[in-house]
Design a protein that fits this description.
The structure is a homodimer of 232-residue chains. With 232 residues, the first copy, chain A, is of the alpha+beta class. The first copy, chain A, has two domains: 128 residues, Jelly Rolls (Sandwich), CATH 2.60.120.10; 82 residues, Orthogonal Bundle (Arc Repressor Mutant, subunit A), CATH 1.10.10. In chain A, a hairpin with a 2-residue loop joins β9 and β10. The radius of gyration of chain A is 19 Å and the shape is globular. In chain A, 41% of the residues are buried. At the A-B interface, α4 of A face α4 of B. Chain B binds a DNA duplex (30 and 30 nucleotides) through α7.
Chain lengths: 232, 232
DNA sequence: CGACTTGTTTGATCCAACACAAACTGGCGG
DNA sequence: CCGCCAGTTTGTGTTGGATCAAACAAGTCG
């Protein structure tokens, strides 16, 4: 591993409270792999032989139902650990991870996990927190899907995207990876048609500015009010 | 702690791979507390001062939205660990836990957690798996809410309840704690009216048998088919 | 640069499920 | 044992969004 990567990785929450020697020890076992745009990092139901930390790019994690419908579970941003199915006691990946842009990840063998955890207990403690916060997110999403109607769900989804992957630009916050109406629909449990209509309406009101696989939020505050309170 | 409780607890997944001495060490720090039917074990947004293992009874865990709507997150059955918010790095409980029948839980101080984990690393490893499997469940629920319509969601919910808390009786599997139409509605993101209509219809077809806060599944196989494939 | 692919917009129609409303019932407390 | 209350059933109207259908850009590639 080049030093460059080590410095990128040192401050990640998953390595919090770990001394540099231990960190080197862990990173030494990884290799960095490049995933071209559109390629898959792992596939749903495939044997979970590796776990990962994303260095560059963005991934879309999704589940496919038996009848072929897709649901976007989340997007992975640089610095996040992912594909830790085996740490959760699973033999296979529960979802598919796809590179939405050219991406690079650190990759460990799943076999290394028990040894690393045994040697560096804080790794397990930090992993509980990582998985725990994802559990919170998932529950938040369940609550939203149960109680809110589509307009608010989509507004919430955009705000979350802006927070996780927003690049502050001239006129508002731009989501800095390609994302389609279909993607947003699969995040919120609706159809691309409905998302398209909503974005068009919001564009007219000056809340967002969007195009082909591209969304910017011009007025986060107004969008937030829309997300919290009914249409008006 | 009386020996009785120790034997109940020894085989739980959370203590897997732990020798009896270590187990005693952990259990010694807990006290067992009784929660009468209808009382709360902890409240949403309250400071997370404890974590728990349920010994007897059943709990309903639920989230309340700002506008007062409730969503049932899950039911806790005996043997399950719950209220581990602080292990996931939270200061407060993200939900409310209510005893649906008279219940008893082992209670630890949250302050004991870091010490216990440091001394017994397998505790952390097992906790990752516990939290991980809840994350899977939550994602399954998100996928269901996104892609399935109400009838199938309710069918799935009943089958899950039967699996987790089903008591095999003469004519089918009875859910062995009081559960209302409203509860099922809050688990599936619908209204008690719709749940009532579905149960009535299923009763006519001989799939279930239900009454006031009481549901039995007479024909799990047919209900399962209904859950997997559309109405027909 | 024209053909084609992939993503987007917009219109028209339809229906599952929600909202509202009212009557019913089992079981508990006084 | 009667009255009350929480939980349930069932009817009727309404609607948010899905579905179906087409035309319309914006890249991309030969």
């Amino acid at each position: 591993m080049p030093n460059l990567d080590k410095s990128l990785v040192a401050d990640l929450p998953i390595f919090e409270g770990m001394n540099p020697d231990d960190l080197s020890d862990i990173i030494r076992e990884a290799q960095s792999i490049r995933y071209p745009k559109g390629s898959s990092v792992f596939q749903q139901d495939e044997e979970a032989n590796s776990f990962f930390i994303l260095l560059h790019g963005h991934l879309r994690v999704m589940k496919v139902t038996p009848d072929g419908q897709q649901v976007v579970v989340r997007f992975v941003a640089p610095g996040e650990i992912f594909g830790i199915a085996m740490a959760m006691g699973r033999k296979t990946y529960p979802a598919t991870a796809l590179a939405v842009v050219d991406s690079v990840a650190l990759v460990w063998s799943a076999a290394a996990w028990p040894r690393l955890v045994a040697k560096h207990p804080s790794l397990a403690v930090n992993t509980i927190q990582t998985v725990g916060s994802r559990l919170q997110d998932a529950h938040t999403r369940v609550v939203e899907m149960s109680t809110e109607q589509v307009e608010r769900r989509v507004a919430h989804a955009l705000l979350r995207l802006a927070q996780q992957a927003g690049r502050k630009g001239e006129d508002g916050i731009k989501i800095d990876f390609p994302i389609s109406r279909q993607d947003v629909a699969e995040m919120t449990g609706t159809t691309l048609h409905t998302v398209s209509r909503l974005l068009s309406a919001w564009e007219d009101q000056g809340l967002v500015e969007s195009g082909r696989q591209r969304i910017s939020i011009r007025n986060p505050h107004k969008l937030f009010m829309l997300a919290e309170a009914p249409s008006h």
